[in-house]
Amino acid sequence: MKWSEICIHTTEEAIEPVTGILYEAGAGGVVIEDSQDFQKDQSADNGTVFDLDPNDFPAEGVNVKAYLPVNSFLGETVEEIKQSLNNLLLYDIDPGENLLTFSEHNEEEWATAWKKYYRPVDVGSRFTITPTWIDYRSDRSQRELIELDPGMAFGTGTHPTTVLCIEALEKYMTPDAKVLDVGTGTGVLSIAAAKLGAKNVLAVDLDQVAVQSSRLNIKLNKVQDIVSVRQNNLADRIEPGFDLIVGNLLAELVIRLAEEGAASKLNADGVLIVSGIINTKRNQVWKTLSATGFRIIDEKKKGDWVALVARKVS
Hints:
The protein has about 325 residues and is of the alpha/beta class. The protein has helices at about 15-25, 35-40, 75-85, 105-115, 160-170, 190-195, 210-220, 250-260, 280-290; strands at about 1-10, 30-35, 60-70, 100-105, 120-125, 125-130, 145-150, 180, 200-205, 225-230, 240-250, 265-280, 295-300, 305-310. The N and C termini lie far apart (about 60 Å).
């Protein structure tokens, strides 16, 4: 079977919405080629050197690559993708060059080629995140492994927004906490919370693919007795009683989560950790949280991304 590789050259800000557009179009997989990743020092703290090919990365910006089967509907699907990309401007998201290009691949090539982009990475002060297909062993006893197989769900746990969330979890999660992970994706934040001592974690995502992926990863990391997963739209119809809510979401979804009563889901002095916020949306999110029952207690930044930590106002 042949697959069409659709490559969209865009911005850091637009990675997640562009990825969402491609999955909605029926993409069978997504690869993120970020120029900032290649420009970073490719040597890990443990001395491992990663041999990355500069030809796999754009000179600037980000390439988001998706794979669609070559069939009679491909032309219509591409036009729908183009329209959705153009509509990003209506939401004040800068798509940058927004250049869309094509190439064809055999299924066998696609099934293995994307794995070369993922490698073990230290995240926060406690964890090393590693793909399941790498036999990774570390003699650094202070670090715990989180093994991930993203499947067709977005993310390998190493995007700056995920890293910011994990760093905040390390700092603000209390032992035996009851945690809600909104928009869980691959389940990496729920796994981290469980390994940090959460009593129980509820992981939710609207995307059924993400629900299946997170269940797989939760079992791989042997935390299924602590973490449960279900399909859900943000925190809709979820009973209150959480000590901490974490959400790696777009700014627009963080705002919606707050406006729809995130504070009511938390116990007294409960903590909300939110990331996925591009710098240009930071003030808007801050104002919304402050107006919906929260007090900002911390802010973390990586590149163009911001994470906010807020406490419920009693």
